[in-house]
Amino acid sequence: MSMNLLKKLIVSAALMTSAVPALVLANEGGFPLDRAPERSTDLVALQNGAKLFVNYCLNCHSASAMRYNRLRDIGLTDEQIKGNLLFTAEKIGELMKTNLSAKDAKTWFGVVPPDLSVIARAKASDRGSGADWLYTYLRSYYRDSSRTTGWNNKEFVNVGMPHALWELQGANRGAVISEVKELKEDKANSEKVTGYTETVSTYDGNGEVTVHTEKLEGEHHHVGKEVELGAATGGKLDAVAYDNAVGDLVAYLQWMGEPGQNSRKRIGVWVVLFMALLATLAWRLNASYWKEVK
Ligand code: HEC
Fold first, then answer.
1. Angle of helix 239-257 versus helix 130-137 axis, rounded to 10
2. pLDDT tens digit string along 18-58?
3. Residue 161: CB within 6 Å of ligand 1?
4. CA of 114 to the centre of ligand 1 (A)
5. Atom of ligand 1 nearest to the CA of 162
6. Is 165 near ligand 1, meaning CB less than 6 Å away?
7. Domains of the chain from N-terminus onward
8. What is the pTM of this model?
9. Which one, out of 74, 160, 195, 282, has a CA that is 20 to 30 A from the CA of 59?
């Protein structure tokens, strides 16, 4: 390999590893994630999660790696699936596809809602598991009338998706966003920090914002942004019940990303044993062939 090519490879590898996290972080709030409750083997939770998923997510998102009849694996009967969950299909062997066309989605939201089959795996990062991210995200909506959807999100800033679960959580949650910035007012030295300002944006329950900026006294301040979400009221569920419902939904999303996770481990053992047997046979066969040749 020529030196040049090697250099190129090293440079592009370095670029890839540094560019990817930057892209991922682009519209994330970057705040610590809440931990999702562990419910991956809790069938009651998974069933409730499946119900929430079909009722509140499938109108826009598909889960096209999933067939409805796979829900048997979380303890549902064909009758239950047909009777309660089959909204976007006719037969239980069909895939979980949304009825929303990509074209309409583009017009309404500016983006096509991504397929959610493996979303829990896709959202894992060094900040936490994908389930943690989803659990935090679905509990971080607040009203913001400057957005076309009327909603914004602490974890996914300026998200194109409206608050799908507002009926459950309530439609009037505000937020207070405080941002401390450096002031650089020295004409002779534009790099010099001359002071700090704090801007507080208060979103009321209708998403109307009042902005207040003031200079901060004192030499040193921590630069950055804080978002404090208001209390949600007026939904079908109270705060504890809402978190609980989101916990179930996230457990379901996680299960959907790897529906075979429990049987996979069992099968794995047999695969290894089988491979070992095959290797032994191949080795014996090889030995006996070469005996003939000599
Ligand atoms: C009204 C349509 C709509 C509904 C209903 C909806 N979503 Fe979305 N969702 C979107 C759109 C549009 C985006 C893309 C947002 C963006 O990129 O700004 C999105 C993005 C997401 C993302 C982020 C994906 C990523 O790659 O970052 C997740 C996770 C998500 N939705 C989960 C859900 C769940 C769970 C539900 C059900 C509770 C749901 N959505 C209901 C429209 C919807």
1. 140
2. 554 444 444 666 799 999 999 988 999 999 999 999 999 99
3. yes
4. 7
5. 1
6. yes
7. 20-160+238-257 (1.10.760.10), 174-230 (no CATH)
8. 0.82
9. 74
